[in-house]
Amino acid sequence: MSITKEPFGSMPDGTPVHLYTLTSSGGLEARIADYGGTVVSILAPDREGRLGEVVLGLDTLEDYVDRSPFFGCITGRYANRIAKARFSLSGTEYRLAQNDGKNHLHGGVRGFDKVVWQARESGGGGGPGLELTYVSEDGEEGYPGNLTVDVTYTLTSDDELRIDYRATTDKDTVVNLTNHTYFNLADGGASDALAHELVIDADRFTPVDDTLIPTGELRSVEGTPLDFRRQMAVGARIGQDDEQLRFGHGYDHNWVLNSGGGGLALAARLVDPISGRALEVLTTEPGIQFYSGNFLDNIKGRGGTVYGKRHGLCLETQHFPDSPNKPQFPSTVLRPGEAYETTTIYRFGTA
Known about the structure:
Blueprint: E1 2-10, E2 16-23, E3 29-33, E4 38-45, E5 51-53, H1 61-67, E6 74-75, E7 81-82, E8 86-89, E9 92-95, E10 104-105, E11 118-122, E12 129-136, E13 147-155, E14 160-169, E15 173-174, E16 178-179, E17 182-183, E18 197-200, E19 204-206, E20 219-220, E21 232-233, H2 243-248, E22 252-256, E23 265-271, E24 277-283, E25 287-291, E26 299-300, E27 306-307, E28 313-318, E29 333-334, E30 340-350
Antiparallel strand pairs: 1-2, 2-3, 3-4, 4-5, 6-16, 7-10, 8-9, 11-12, 12-13, 13-14, 14-30, 15-29, 17-28, 18-21, 18-23, 19-20, 19-22, 22-25, 23-24, 24-30, 25-28, 26-27
């Protein structure tokens, strides 16, 4: 098990960016940049033991700065959407950037995906680790409070990429962090992922309006194309004439996990039947956003590979979208003296 560091270029202001390669004893390899805390690459073995790329990515730092659709990054201060880019907290209304129509998405114009994090190697987590720290100042992107965020990536001997998040604040604020990696277990995004088979341990989901904001309802998946309680191909029902699929242009919804966020639990399992690669997602979060890559539009990716529509999919563990405006949803409020702490594990194997 090891970790190495190499240059990955410089930001326009001259800030250097580095790429860290974490290698496990089982052969799994993850490459992570301190720009955006971005997972640039993951190599995982297939059923024959052959290593292959399983995430979508770009070749250069400039590509990530100029045109990345959130490939592999940490999203925050609030992952997912906030309706009308505003919320009220402790008697004060806060207005955020409208960067998704009239709504706010993934922390705004310059979210956590677009900053350089302070990085240091860490140990003691069962394998090579990379600890990333960023201080989001009071008022950044409209959010209240100085928020100190630590995200630690650990590659374990069990072929797991473990992500531990921690944040503290000096003023009442909201926080919801996730990782936005696009997976394709077959070929890293050279073809679509519609044949991948998915299980999500959720009896309910949060239906959305036509701007992808949750209505506030927790609706049963029973009898809908969003029922993934049994293993089902991603593409099996994605073209059905269903209002929720029309609104999302496919799957772009939050599932209410049966675990309720009460502890680390299995949330989803993804299998590519051709290569035999499998991915299990475990989390302490109460929700997971399954996004089927509906807006990937012939993006020139790593090594010249062209990523088309649905060539990758995201399984983003999270609190629910628009929770600051939905008091019936699990709270995303963080107050001084408290700590936001959450863990997600991406466990690789074969089926």
